[in-house]
Amino acid sequence: MLPTKTLLSLLAASASLVNAAAVPAAAASPDDNVLVLEGPFPINATTLETRSSSILSKRADCYTGSGINTPDLTELARQLQNDNPDQLTYLPALSWTAWTYGSARTCVYNNYVYDNTHVKRWEAGWGSVSVKNQCCYTPYCGGGKQQGHGDSGLAVDIVVKPVGQGC
């Protein structure tokens, strides 16, 4: 068994390798129009209370509003599905991660209390495309929520929202 200090050092080193290719959120502004990965972050009680529980569905739940420029959402989804689509992002129990591009943000939530999973960029892009196709009929839209799955088969919520709104 490894000493706790060694184990923590290994975990910190592996976490930095996983996110090495991502652009830090603080280093990019919405005007840069670059894909930015955020997370994973723990889900807090407020987040759980404000979102409805997931059900198995292929239909997106649409949000009202017009904070997302639809072409930004199209590009976000394109990059997720075409640029290294098999890259996995670790999503521990009760956590979320997000990608942003321009005015669009795609958040992926793992609402399970004890189960961890990984989500492919392709899956996040698929959920973004599904929301766009079902909810965004004009140049601007409010986003929506679609259920996807992690590599372990766990259901995850894929939520598209304006970049100004937190996950």
Provide the spatial order of strands within the biggest beta sheet.
Answer: 1-5-6-10-9-2
Largest sheet: 6 strands, antiparallel
Q: For the residues shown, what is the average pLDDT? A: 80
- Coarse shape: globular
- Gyration radius (Cα, Å) is 16 Å
Provide structural commentary.
The chain is of the alpha+beta class and 167 residues long. The protein contains four helices and ten strands, in the order αβαββαββββαβββ. It has a six-stranded antiparallel sheet with strand order 1-5-6-10-9-2, covered by helices on one side. A two-stranded antiparallel sheet has the order 3-8. A two-stranded antiparallel sheet has the order 4-7. Helix 3 packs antiparallel against helix 4. The longest helix is centred in the first third of the chain and has 15 residues. The N and C termini lie far apart (37 Å).
Helices, strands, pairings?
Blueprint lengths: L3 H15 L17 E7 L2 H6 L10 E2 L5 E2 H13 L5 E4 L3 E7 L2 E7 L6 E4 H15 L4 E2 L2 E6 L5 E8 L5
Antiparallel strand pairs: 1-5, 2-9, 3-8, 4-7, 5-6, 6-10, 9-10
Helix pairs in contact: 3-4
Please tag this protein with its features.
167 residues; alpha+beta; six-stranded antiparallel β-sheet; two-stranded antiparallel ribbon; 10 strands; 29% helix; disordered N terminus
What's this model, at a glance?
This protein has 167 residues and is α+β, with helices and mostly antiparallel strands. It has helices at residues 4-18, 45-50, 70-82, 121-135, and strands at 36-42, 61-62, 68-69, 88-91, 95-101, 104-110, 117-120, 140-141, 144-149, 155-162.
